[in-house]
Amino acid sequence: MKGKAALTTDFIVETVAPIFNKNGYYGTSLSHLTKATGLTKGAIYGNFKNKEDIAFAAFEFNVDVVVEKIKADLADITDGVGQLYALFNFYRKYRMHTIAIGGCPIINIGVDANHQNDNLLHKVQEVIERLQYYIQKMIVLGQDQGTIKSDINAVTYAKRIFASIEGAMFMTATMNDESYINDMMDHIDNLVKTELEINSH
Amino acid sequence: MKGKAALTTDFIVETVAPIFNKNGYYGTSLSHLTKATGLTKGAIYGNFKNKEDIAFAAFEFNVDVVVEKIKADLADITDGVGQLYALFNFYRKYRMHTIAIGGCPIINIGVDANHQNDNLLHKVQEVIERLQYYIQKMIVLGQDQGTIKSDINAVTYAKRIFASIEGAMFMTATMNDESYINDMMDHIDNLVKTELEINSH
DNA sequence: AATAAAATATACCGATTGGTATAATTTATG
DNA sequence: CATAAATTATACCAATCGGTATATTTTATT
C-alpha cells in the first residue's frame, strides 16, 4: 500500500537519529532535519505528525542500533556468567560502536528529556528497565546453572552494574578518555568473579 | 564603583542557574530568564554580554553550591580515609541537596554541552578534573598516614569512584529512585574498606 | 497511456528567538 | 539639591522557530 513513504520514513529516522542524540530536542531544529535529509518540511511532515514524534522514533532507533549489536555478541552464549562477561566486553568497545550516533542515547536523552519532556523521559525509563532486566536474567540464569551464588540479590547487582556502566560511559564521553570505561569493566569483571561466582577449586 | 549592578548580576545568576541546569542551553530562552527574574532584556544585557556568558556563570554557580556543601561536611576531618567516607555520605544526601537546582550540574551540562558548546564543555571538564583531584588527594593522604595501602593507584581509584558516583546519580535522577545512589555508596564504602584500607587486626 | 492516489515541494503563517539602540529611570557624587 | 553616571525599561530588529494549506510531482492502478 504505502511503499515509498515507509522507506522515506525509515530514511528520515536513520538520518536524523544522530542529530537528536547529539543536540537534544530543543537543540535540534526542523532546518537541521531538512538539511541532513535533503528533504523539505512538507516531506517530513507528510511522514511524521510533529517534531516530538520524530524525536521518539530517533531515540528508539538509536537504542535498537545498540541492542542489536549486544544481541549479536551474545547470540551463541548459553551460560549466565558467560553472557555477563560478553556484555562487559561489548561495553569495552561501546564507544567505537556508538560514536557515529553521538554516544549513549540513554544518557543523552535521559538528561535531555528530564525536566523537559515527560513522554520522552518515560521511554528512556522503559528502555533502562528492559536492559536492567536483561542483566538480572543473566544473573538468575547463572544461579539456576549453579555458577552464581544463590543468595545474592540479582536486582541489586543488575542496578549497580548498569549504573556503573552508564557512569563510566558518561565520563568517557565527556572527558574523551576511554580509560574510564575500560577500567570500570575490569572492575565489574572482578566484582562478578569475587562476589557473584561460585569458586570452583 | 558599581554597587547595584554587581548585586543584580548575582541575583540573575542565582535565579536562572536552576533553569539552565534543568533545561540546558537551547532549552532555556531569554523569555525564561526575564520571567524568572522579573527583569527586562535590557537589564539582563546590561549585566551580561550574551546568553552564553549567563550559561557559564550559571554552571559555575551551581557547581559552587555543591562544592561549598562538600567543604562544609569535610571541614573538621583530617584523615584521608575519614574524608573519603564523609564524601560518600554527602552523596547519599546529594539528591536532597540538589533537587532545588535540578540535579547534578556536571551530568546535566556535561551532556548538554557535548557536541554543542565546546567552551562550556571545557568548563565541565575542568570541574571534573578538580573534583577528581580532591578524591585523589584524599587517597594519597591516607597513604601518607599509613591507613591506605601504598601500592594502589590513587588516580585510577579516584576516576573509578567519580565515575561510579556520576552513574548512580544519573540513574537516581532519571529513574527517580534513590536506591541507586544509596547502594552505590554502600558498594564504594566496601571497596575502600576491602581494597584500599590497611586492615588493623 | 490515462487516471487516481500518494508523496513531496513551495510558499506561507503567527510566534518566538537572541540581540540592540535609545529612552526613561535610579543611583551615586559634588 | 543639582547633575552626571550608571542602570533598567521600552520598542524595535532580522532571523528562525514549528507547523500548515496548497500546488506540484511522483508513484501505483487500470
Quickly describe the structure:
The structure is a homodimer of 201-residue chains. With 201 residues, chain A is mainly alpha-helical. Chain A has helices spanning 3-23, 30-37, 41-47, 51-74, 80-92, 94-98, 105-113, 118-144, 154-175, 179-196.
List the topology elements:
Two copies of one chain form a homodimer.
Chain A: H1 3-23, H2 30-37, H3 41-47, H4 51-74, H5 80-92, H6 94-98, H7 105-113, H8 118-144, H9 154-175, H10 179-196
The first copy, chain A, binds a DNA duplex (30 and 30 nucleotides) through residues 1-5, 8, 29-31, 39-47, 50-51.
Pick out its properties:
201 residues; DNA-binding; homodimer; Tetracycline Repressor, domain 2; 77% helix
